[in-house]
Design brief:
By secondary structure, the chain is of the alpha+beta class. Helices cover 50% and strands 12% of the residues. Strands 1-2-3-4-5 form a five-stranded antiparallel beta sheet. It has a five-stranded mixed beta sheet with strand order 13-12-14-15-16, sandwiched between helices. The protein is flat.
Length: 537
């Protein structure tokens, strides 16, 4: 591993005050010879985190963490030694020195790796424009990709045969396997990517380190990626980051979408600051990488259930990275679409509307609590309060955390004190129900609170006051109560499907669209839902 000269690390310690470095993240108060604050590495109310400016060391008497400006930067920013040195050098205004050279063996291995994956990308790119790659080319062009876009992002096609294994037959197998392009089988090595639309994955410096392959026959998983290698780690790599770095700096924000096609379309349509995780869930490593540029992030996910869950998870992950200069927002693409579809059919203006209507984190967290818990009941309010507290406890900036706590206390007082939820949902999303159904639901929620938690999203759409007068008794056991709620959900879903089919049919008759395939899909879904209804009965 490359190391910096000890003289340079000593220079950083001399140039930078440990109080200034730590004070950017932790509010410090001088008491006696030391500065004190609440430890950023564990939750505490009484300050036990001590910083000695003369000695250049910190120590927490609560969790035992200790070190200097370098170890603090590594721990607090979740970055490696080299990145910490780079960040501190920028702060100190000194240039980075030349690091010690890698061994000849290390250099040779890396050069071999980059040489193989670069040649593989050229092979895939050539195959895309041959008869073998016609299906892949037709697909990607159908997604609105021009030949210039295909060339810029290095897209290609991996044929069904073992073209990589054959091309590099004279290369040592261990070197070839180390790239993740081939695997060892019973009869020798074979290509990992076959019959796939190929997306090269670049590191931050713009070098190809891996590939992502998309299936073309509808098989699952839809995407497969190169397994982790010496030079590629999915948890630490963001698709499109090499192209987005300058735009992130200029726009002073980062947009995070769910997939590489979305990221490419966004970058090519005026949102150059867009990146995407690589088929894996967003990680702390991804956010650490982004937050080194700035802490202004827009999470732009699909509006379906999976997108909502991804947003809630992202909200929890970003909390420790929040600072008083952070602007974190959440945008959702509704109607079963994604950013790629919005840009192809509605253009940049429609996408701008979605981005501009993004919800601030403070509101997103509040809306999530109201959506997932029945806050009209004491137990639901308690659960929602615990959920919010758990999330804001992750905020390391103590003053910012205090502001969030104050904000939510005000909201709880103003909006929950009457035990009645004020819904901001549009009228047509509320199902039509009679008094018997209303009383039955109130009975179920009060007798079986676990049903309120499990089906809170659906139950909230009724906009009911779930406080019971205790008079109604429908004598439903737990299983029957759940069956009742599921039956209502099916009725609502079937009604929505029928309405969607009616709207599409009207547009087809007017000659506006040709969505016969979508109508067939809706018919299949209706039949499936009716079968579920029969099973319930």
């Amino acid at each position: 591993m490359s190391k910096y000269d000890n003289n340079f690390t000593d220079l950083l310690r001399e140039r930078l005050s440990i109080v200034d470095v730590i004070g950017r993240r932790v509010p410090l108060v001088k008491k006696g010879q030391n500065y004190w604050g609440c430890c950023p590495f564990h939750n505490e109310k009484t300050p036990s985190f001590s910083v000695n400016e003369d000695k250049g060391f910190f120590h927490c008497f609560g969790c035992g963490k200790h070190g200097d400006i370098i170890s603090f930067t590594m721990e607090s920013e979740h970055i490696d030694f080299k990145s910490a040195i780079s960040e501190l050098a920028d702060m100190a205004g000194v240039p980075l020195p030349q690091i010690k050279q890698k061994s000849d063996a290390q250099i040779a291995a890396e050069e071999s790796y980059f040489d193989i994956v670069e040649k593989a990308q050229k092979i895939y790119a050539e195959k895309l424009f041959t008869p073998e790659g016609s299906v892949a080319l037709e697909y990607i062009r159908g997604r609105g990709f021009s030949d210039d876009m295909i060339k810029k992002y290095g897209l290609g096609y991996a044929p069904k045969n073992n073209i990589i294994a054959g091309t590099f037959a004279n290369t040592k197998q261990d070197k070839l396997i180390a790239t993740g392009l081939v695997r060892r089988g019973e009869y020798g090595v074979y290509d990992f990517f076959r019959d796939k639309l190929m997306f090269p994955i670049f590191n931050a410096k713009g070098k190809i380190v891996a590939f992502s392959g998309r299936s073309l026959d509808g098989s699952e998983p839809k995407y497969i990626n190169t397994s982790d290698t010496e030079l590629f780690h999915k948890r630490q790599t963001l698709f499109g980051f090499n192209f987005a770095r300058e735009s992130i700096h200029r726009a002073n924000r980062t947009i995070i979408v769910e997939g590489q096609i979305d990221a490419i379309q966004m970058q090519c349509n005026g949102f150059g600051e867009t990146v995407a995780p690589l088929g894996t869930a967003l990680t702390e490593d991804h956010l650490s990488m982004i937050c080194k540029s700035n802490r202004n992030i827009i999470f732009c996910f699909d509006g379906d259930g999976a997108g909502q869950k991804a947003a809630v998870r992202a909200c929890g992950l970003i909390m420790p990275f929040l600072r008083d200069n952070s602007d974190v927002r959440f945008a959702f693409v509704s109607g079963g679409k994604d950013p790629d579809e919005i840009l192809r059919h509605g253009g940049k203006k429609d996408m701008e509307k979605i981005i501009n209507s993004s919800v601030p984190l403070v509101d997103f967290l509040w809306n999530t609590a109201n959506k997932n818990y029945i806050v009209q009941t004491p137990s639901g309010k308690t659960q929602a309060t615990q959920f919010i507290k758990k999330e804001i406890d992750k905020i390391q900036d103590k003053l910012l955390k205090s502001e969030y706590e104050h904000e939510y206390e005000n909201r709880k007082f103003n909006q929950w004190h009457k035990w009645k939820k004020t819904s901001d949902k549009i009228a047509e999303s509320v199902p039509d129900i009679d008094i018997v159904v209303k009383n039955t639901l109130v009975y179920i929620v009060n007798k079986y609170p676990e049903m309120a938690e499990r089906y809170g999203d659906f139950l909230n759409t009724f906009n009911l006051d779930f406080e019971s007068d205790g008079k109604s008794d429908f004598n439903l056991d737990l299983k029957s109560a759940e069956k009742y709620i599921i039956s209502l959900k099916l009725q609502k879903y079937i009604k929505d499907l029928k309405q969607k089919k009616q709207d599409l049919t009207a547009k087809i008759l007017r000659g506006e669209i040709d969505e016969s395939d979508e109508i067939n899909r809706i018919d299949d879904e209706l039949n499936r839902m009716k079968e579920k209804q029969d099973m319930l009965i």
